[in-house]
Amino acid sequence: MQEMNKEQLKNMFRLDGKVAIVTGGAGSLGEGTAEGLALHGADVVVTGRTLATLEKSVEKIKAAGGRGLAIVCDVTNEEQVKSMVEQTVKEFGKIDILVTVAGIAKRFPAEDFPVEEFQKVMESNVTGTFIPCKIVGQVMKEQGFGKIITVSSVRAYAGHPGGYAAYGTSKAAVALLTKQLATEWAKYNINVNSVAPTIFWTPLTKEVLEDEKLKNIFLSRIPMGRAALVQDMVGTVVYLSSAASDFITGQVIYVDGGCTAG
Predict the structure, then answer these.
(1) Which residues of 118-130 are buried (b: 16+ CB within 10 A; e: fewer)?
(2) pTM tops 0.85, yes or no
(3) Positions marked active-site
(4) Residue-range definition of the domain harbouring residue 101
(5) CATH number of the domain residue 50 falls in
(6) What is the pLDDT of residues 207-230, one digit of tens each?
(7) N or C: which terminus of the chain carries fewer CB neighbours within 10 A?
């Protein structure tokens, strides 16, 4: 049995010298994730559709001590993703970490759900997760290492009366995709795991969480009695990005205050 290196154990959550890509890097979760990775030592590339909002994330990355780069990219467009990955490798030389935060949510009663809106959610959340994983996975395969963290949801675990026919289905697909990639890429020393949060306090959920009736429906299903905060997810992402999780792959970690416990 190999003796544990105490210095490595002490620093097992550090990300010094690591290069990360965060898709959806301008949103609340993406920006917080990018900043959290930078605070632990990583250089971070953020992607999204609008350069101005991405630049705000880059400012936070730099303030946290990391090098940052904003690249406009539609994650459902394979050629744009290839270009983004090439720019990242050219700038930083490698890719150690990919976090696929980009995604959308649209809620309608299932019987009235417009098919075109359903398809938009699937395209953004499923295809928009698969393509970055595929292209970055090719780089990580050549390197012989890498950490990929997808973003699923508690809505992948159980239904909800709030109109989640598309969102929940898409996130269930992300959870299964995570396990599939993990089993295919373990031989390349690539870890693929997923973070599955409950509802977060973000601008996108403000409409729900400021409506007392809707808020109570959600909170009644969370034993810890509150919505998640961005930092609740960031800690899990840092863990899955670090050496502390080297023997963990194909897992979906629920950051949900006990929502899926019972």
Answers:
(1) beebbebbbbbbb
(2) yes
(3) 167
(4) 16-201+230-255
(5) 3.40.50.720
(6) 777 888 888 888 888 999 998 999
(7) N
